[in-house]
Amino acid sequence: MNTLKIIENELIEVGINPCLSGFYCLLHAINYYLENNKEYYEVSITKELYPYVASKMGGKTSTSSRVERCIRHSIEKLYNEFYTEHLNHVINMNSGKPTNSTFIAYLLIRVKNKINDGNS
User: Fold this and answer.
1) Torsion of the alpha carbons at 92, 94, 74 and 68, rounded to the nearest 10
2) Is residue 57 within 8 Å of 21, Cβ to Cβ?
3) Which of 35, 53, 66, 73 gives 61 a disulfide partner, CB atoms 3.0 to 4.6 angstroms apart?
4) What pLDDT is attached to residue 58?
5) 39, 33 contact by CB (below 8 A)
6) What is the mean pLDDT of residues 63-71?
7) What pLDDT was estimated at residue 27?
């Protein structure tokens, strides 16, 4: 299975709605880490990741601030509509909704684990 398909499946499994622009922003964000073989702490979210995702999104979401907003909106929708105690425990959202960077790190770990399980 290709990497983009694995990322898509994980986003859907977590509960991110594919109808939202944030779904595709998250898809490109996670793929960026994997393509560049970087850990989440090695990338500046605002200076490196958001501009990259904005360039991948083209005309729809062409600025870093729009990328940030689309991802935040997807997290808010997930939290408000599909929130579960399990998700709270896994992401450690003791103080409310996770930040974009926390959520991206969570997704990156899930995707990497899925990829590693497939190669075992």
Assistant:
1) -90
2) yes
3) 66
4) 82
5) yes
6) 92
7) 97
What single string gives the DSSP state of each residue in 32-69?
HHHHTT--GGGS-IIIIIHHHHHHHHTTTT-SHHHHHH
Name the amino acid, one letter, at 8.
E
User: Count of alpha carbons within 13 Å of 48, Cβ hemisphere only?
Assistant: 12
Specify the pTM: 0.86
Q: Is the pLDDT of residue 88 over 70?
A: no
Structure tokens that stand for 67 in this block: 């990328």
Token pair of 50, please? 């958001």
Residues 6+ apart with CB under 8 A from 26: 7, 11, 16, 71, 74, 103, 104, 107
